[in-house]
Amino acid sequence: MASELLWPTRCVSCDMPGELLCEDCRANMPWISQRWACPVCGAPFGWLTCTACDGSWEPRATVCGLGFGQIPSQMVACLKDGHELRLAPVNAAVMACALEEAAAWPARDGKPRFDAESTDALCFVPATSEAVVRRGFDHMGLVAEELSAIINVPLADVLVRGEAQDQRDLSKQERAKNLAGTVGVIDDVSGLNLLLVDDVVTTGASMREATRALLARGAASVTCCGLTRVW
Ligand SMILES: [Zn+2]
Ligand SMILES: [Zn+2]
Question: Which one of 97, 148, 161, 213 is CB 3.0 to 4.6 Å from 155, fit for a cystine?
Answer without folding.
Answer: 148
